[in-house]
């Protein structure tokens, strides 16, 4: 992707699992020749009895290999009883992006691989069928203002395990990945192996799907940008001149607002736009979240 990492700071999201340990070790071996600074960050969710062992394991590896390591724990009182998986992901990325900003990292790297990509496509296909959601795992992205890289999407889990075996890289197995309680695990254990039997090149096809979706989304975003720039209004809304959208059909307008909500608020919404409102007033369209307007009225 023509990304120059010379003299850059790379922060790796490390879990101590086989995937992130493979990525961390690959980068460590590349560090001297590629001339970048390598750092690691670990978020202890405190959801399993062996979570402390993961932290100790990473401390040992990073200490022996002179890799700066940042660790944080998710306080028990902050953990919800419902929707804990989504909350854990939100808390983890909040910590990772905060560490990236505090340490002036140029890139945050995660160890998502081709099997993760395939599982994500299947998972989102089952849950929503939204092509954009199915393509949410990308090689290059951005989160909370930090550039996000996933350099292993073209490689399978088996290849990473082979790397660990060849270079004798130890790792910790997450016991929750073995259970069938989540849909992702059921797909991983039962569905994906059957699909791979039908076509061993399934990982390659998943990557091809993702790349073609990227091209289509870039094309749509280019068309959306031609409509004109939205401007911030009172820090609670975005607006655009009505005439800019005058040539769009109703369906095209809905799609325009869906893309805008994703870009401005990082939220996927259906045709009713979820918790967002579009209002036309004095030759402008205004986009805002319902609670934002309520907060302004209270003030």
Verbal overview:
- There is one protein chain.
- With 299 residues, the protein is an alpha/beta fold.
- The protein has helices spanning 18-34, 51-64, 84-102, 114-127, 131-134, 157-166, 183-198, 202-225, 250-265, 290-298; strands at 9-13, 37-44, 69-73, 107-109, 140-143, 146-149, 231-233, 237-241, 276-281, 284-289.
- The strands form two sheets. Strands 3-2-1-4-6-5 form a six-stranded mixed beta sheet, with helices on both faces.
- Strand 7 and strand 8 form a beta hairpin.
- The N and C termini lie far apart (47 Å).
- The model has no long low-confidence stretch (mean pLDDT 91).
Task: Note the topology.
Blueprint: E1 9-13, H1 18-34, E2 37-44, H2 51-64, E3 69-73, H3 84-102, E4 107-109, H4 114-127, H5 131-134, E5 140-143, E6 146-149, H6 157-166, H7 183-198, H8 202-225, E7 231-233, E8 237-241, H9 250-265, E9 276-281, E10 284-289, H10 290-298
Parallel strand pairs: 1-2, 1-4, 2-3, 4-6
Antiparallel strand pairs: 5-6, 7-8, 8-10, 9-10
